[in-house]
Amino acid sequence: MFDPQGPTLRELTVQALSSVERGYDLLAPKFDRTPFRTPEKVLDAVADTLRPLGPFESGLDVCCGTGAGMDVLARLCERRITGVDLSAGMLAAARSAHPDGPDGPDGPPVHWVRADALRLPFAPVFDLAVSFGAFGHFLPAQRPALFGQVHAALRPGGRFAFPVGAPPRIGSPLYWTLWGFDAAMRVRNALWRPRFVMYYRTFRLPEVRRELAGAGFAVETLPLEDLGRRPDGSPRARLVVARRK
Fold it and tell me: The pTM is what?
């Protein structure tokens, strides 16, 4: 739910009628008071699952927003961490929230970079890349390029990790909520410019695995046990871990 100090309905409407970049510039000051911020329990589960795969020296948060994922990198990386995002407003909020870095002055040095994730300005220097909640902003046709950019920013053997929730049961309230949101967004983008790309039902794990493999990754998935299991015994969420060959 929205915090009482979060964005108003009018502010959300203005954001939704803007481009992705402009919309997040507008939302940035109140973003962490919305349900869109990645919950701490997800961040903790990802950090706990990645820790045995380390140690890691340098980390990259792709589409870092206000810096929630940087908290994960600060716990895992010893040398430096970098957050990259297209929105100047989100990066400004991240710098304000973490003036000394997510882990304070004793943590690894932090760098904030404004760039398009489809054109990352990095040499292959990172051991670990993560991303949280950003993939809905990329159309399926753009994902191979996105994965290729992350691959190029990783050292050989470096890992790209992100959580994926189990698909909702067909016919469940969540299923129809996501279906309705995507349908409304398609109508909005057909009638209004600039487009605001945000779709929940286009990020399907089998397709994503194939695209990661095509970009040069070896892919595995690990259950995020801290987030529990569904009644059928399957995990509620998995961590995709793609290793640069």
Answer: 0.93
**Same structural domain, 60 and 134:** yes
Identify whether residues 19 and 112 lie together within a single domain. no
| Structure-token match 């739910």, residue found | 1
- Do the domain assignments include residue 192? no
Per-residue pLDDT tens over the stretch 110-142:
999 999 999 999 999 999 999 999 999 999 999
Q: 86-109 burial, b for 16+ CB within 10 Å, e for fewer?
A: bbebbbbbbeeebeebbbeeebbe
| Cβ atoms of residues 110 and 102 within 8 Å | yes
Q: Is residue 188 part of a domain?
A: no
Decide if 186 is inside a domain.
no
| pLDDT at position 4 | 72
Q: And the tokens for 177?
A: 């909520």
Strand partners, 111: 82
Per the structure, the complete domain to which residue 222 belongs is given by 38-167+204-244
Give Cα separations from 202 to 98, 137, 156, 172, 178 (angstroms).
Answer: 32, 10, 29, 18, 11
Q: Which residues of 164-188 are buried (b: 16+ CB within 10 A; e: fewer)?
A: bbeebeeeeeeeeebeeebeebeee
For 154-177, write each residue's pLDDT tens digit: 999 999 999 999 999 999 999 999
Tell me which DSSP letter residue 181 carries: H
